[in-house]
Structure formats: C-alpha cells, structure tokens
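Appendix B, example 12.
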Amino acid sequence: MIMIFGIPGPLLFGQLLLGLINGAFYAMLSLGLAVIFGMLNIINFAHGALFMMGAFVAWILLDALGIGYFPSLILAPLIVGAFGVVLERTIISRLYKLDHLYGLLLTFGLSLVIEGLFRNAYGSSGLPYRIPDILQGATNLGFMYMPNYRGWVVLAALVVCFSTWAIIEKTSLGATLRAATENAPLVQAFGVNVPRVVTLTYGAGVALAAFAGVLAAPIYSVNPNMGSNFINTVFAVVVIGGMGSILGSIVTGFGLGVIEGLTKVFYPQASATVVFLVMIIVLLARPRGLFGKAA
C-alpha cells in the first residue's frame, strides 16, 4: 500500500476527492452570492434555502412527472430562478437604497419561511435521489477508485463557475452588468433597462444556487436543512475571497474544500473550524479578502 507522510494513499486521495466535492459546492454557492452582492449590493442570506429548493424541485420533477436528472439540471434552475425574479421584484427591490443590514435580515427571514414550508410539506428525515445510470459506478485511477458521479460534480462545477466568470468579466453583457451597478443613471441614458438587468442578475444568482442543489441531491439526502448546513461556510468563503469577487469565490471555494479535506486526514479535530481559522488569518492580513478590491 502506498504511504504518503505516514498516511495510506487511498485514505489521503479519498479525502482530497471529498474536499474537492465540498469545494465544488462552496464555489458554486459562493459564486451566486458574489454575483448578487457584487451586482446588487444585497447580502442574500436566503441562498442556502434556494440551494435546498433546487434539490427539492429536482426531486419533485422526478417523483411527480418522471423527469430525470439531466433535464432537471436545466429545469430546476429555471424554475427556482423564476421564483427568485418574483422575490426580487416584489420584496428585495425595496431595499436597495437602505443599509445592508435590512437586506440581510429580510433574506434571513425568507430563508426561515422557505425552509419551514418545505419542512411542513416533506418532513426533516430526507428523501433519496438516485444517481443516474450513466454516472453510476467508479473509475480506477490507479491510485484510487473515483466514483463517477463525484467526478462529474467537480467537472460540472468547474465548467459552470469559470463560464460565469468569463461571461461577467470578458463579454459585453458582463461589462453592461458591471456598469449598471456603478453608474445606473448613465447606463440607463444609453437605453439599457437597468431594473430589468438587476432583476435578471438576481435570478441568475439564484439559478446558480439551484443548479448546485440539483448536483447535491444524489450525494446528500434531499431535506430542508441541507442549505443551512452549507451557508455558514459559504459566507466565510465569500469573505475570504473578497466580497463581490467572482474569481475569488471560485478559487477560494475549491481551495478551502481541499484544505478542509486534508485537515480531516492530518488533524480531524480541527476540520469543522479550519475554514473560519483561515478567515480570521486572512482578515487580519488583508481585510478586503484575497481578491477583494480596495474601496
């Protein structure tokens, strides 16, 4: 058996894979938060509940309509994103000119309401969601067996995260979005419907959370608490990467997932707190985060 630093190779590589998987969810969830905060200046505490809603929508599509996993990867984000658009138009848009604290309190209340509704309807025990046949089994990498579905989650997360970054940072659409957040009256003078851009941006951020929820459904049981289990760590990821930084959320999400996985191997007692220890160190050295811009 291969030994690395006195640790069996399969154990080390297995924890690294688990860290990458957790990092994939951290990256996708923090990416949605960064998009919403960076473009709308709203701290969206309901993000975990919307992640959970994406998993439940996929489960409902399968249970009630027989719609499988891959169509749900498209339909569930669209459905939850449309729900996010309604939330933004009816409630959240009223808070843009107020202090950040009001948005945080409102979205925290929304998360409790959403989770409570699903808890009353489906209970708290969790519902199974089957891995699609094409992604079942494992692949022998020589040094370990990698479950196919977990490899797919990491790959899908990388594609979605860096595609989102490229759209926002490298396209004219992204330039319009960034300009609308910095000088809305000027952008509107050029004929851009800024309120619509803001609404669609919020819907896109929510859809990213729902996409992550569908990916998570076969790994974790679909239950009303699955979002709240992630959200504290995800907020730490956003702070470490830099509030509103798209690239910071992606790199920090995957990086902290790997650090968390390695900590479980070398010092398991600290695995639940290592992310927050990293956050403290980063904020002491660089208060705006690793990729944050100076005010």
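The chain has eleven helices and four strands. Residues 116 and 224 are 8 Å apart (CA to CA).
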